Amino acid sequence: MKKSETGVYDGKSEFEATKLKDQKYVMQNYGRQPIQIVKGKGSILTDSEGKNYIDCVSGIAVNSIGYGDKRFVDAITKQASELIHISNLYYNKPQANLAEKLCEISGMSRVFFCNSGAEAMEAAIKLARLKTGKSKFIAAKHSFHGRTVGSLGLTYGEKYRIPFEPLVQSAEFVEFGDSEAVSDAISKDTAAVVLEPIQGEGGVHVPNDNYLQEVRKICDENGILLIFDEVQTGFGRTGKWFCKDNFNVQPDIMTMAKAIAGGLPMGAIAAREGLSFGAGEHASTFGGSPLVSAAALASIKIIEEDNLISNSFEMGKYLKEKLSSMKRKDVVSVRGKGLLVGVELDHPCGYIVNEARESGVLLNVTSGNVVRFIPPLTISKEEIDKVVDVLDNIPSQKT
Ligand SMILES: *Cc1c(COP(=O)(O)O)cnc(C)c1O
Fold this sequence. Notes:
Blueprint: H1 14-25, E1 37-41, E2 44-47, E3 52-55, H2 58-61, H3 70-82, H4 93-106, E4 110-114, H5 117-132, E5 136-140, H6 158-161, E6 171-174, H7 179-185, E7 190-195, H8 211-222, E8 225-229, H9 244-247, E9 253-256, E10 267-271, H10 290-305, H11 308-324, E11 331-337, E12 340-345, H12 350-358, E13 361-362, E14 364-366, E15 370-373, H13 381-392
Parallel strand pairs: 3-13, 5-6, 5-7, 7-8, 8-9
Antiparallel strand pairs: 1-2, 2-3, 4-10, 9-10, 11-12, 12-15, 14-15
Helix pairs in contact: 3-10, 4-10, 11-13
The protein binds pyridoxal-5'-phosphate.
């Protein structure tokens, strides 16, 4: 397709041209929204037609520091001009600094770097299997831990998992929030229990205050490892550095990704003293490159400098209050911590995503009837007011 002077491709808008090319050349595994995003500032995104949106999706809980932060752009620009990638055959200062920082904010003792959430889960699975010599895992119903052939075995959703069986890793799935069910599922072959401290993709399920502590105790009594998947809940999302800190529980291994590097792709695991890969036991070509490590350090610094964790806590509280006082009558519950909030409606709500978008708000629906809010941690009261007002005025079209 040729581009004319006016930015129109063969009579089509830039968006239409992109859409046609995507539909022809990209595998159609995503249900894309009919807009093309071209830039962002703070919590606001702009599409190719110049329309603005308040973003309550954040690239799926990735863009926690918001868009276009000059400090972040300067940090990655500076690092990119010096060195982008060097293999893990050599020492790398940004990586060492980041590992130290991650240990400091997580209370863990060592870190391994990779490139995504699913890869972090792979690393956690391998480390747990290596250190226990066992291969069975207990995971929760409605869990989501990624889509690689290993992590998929711990992911509950049958539509993700069943078509790919047999998988190399399987799990016994127990009710989330029921510690006795964990006890009952333990066998002599159990290596670890794997949990999201708050389930994100599964519909924003918050366990009761004691659940994770009880599971910690059960794991200790039975000599099995506890793995927390903090891929979605980490880096201030739930009003603490990590969601585990809301419950005062320390896992043996935790996984991180999504918001870790301010939008650049990175994953990591952190583990307690005594749990570590030895030489050659695991590796990643790109893991912890100077560029992504510098990005992660810059993003963490911005979270600290701008008090984004307390903003996440305060704005999350405000958002939940506003959502709870909507006039709409189809709300089953409002739940979450910090800026990981879900509103369960008594009917499927996919259409709400479209109507909100037309009104300038990007939302996302998970597990059919839960509207999920995962905005940048920079979001303001005024923006939340607008978002809730838009949602409140979308009719409940029950079917
Ligand atoms: C997104 C997510 C993953 C998978 O992360 P990818 O980077 O998409 O591989 C794993 N666990 C949780 C809890 C997630 O939210």
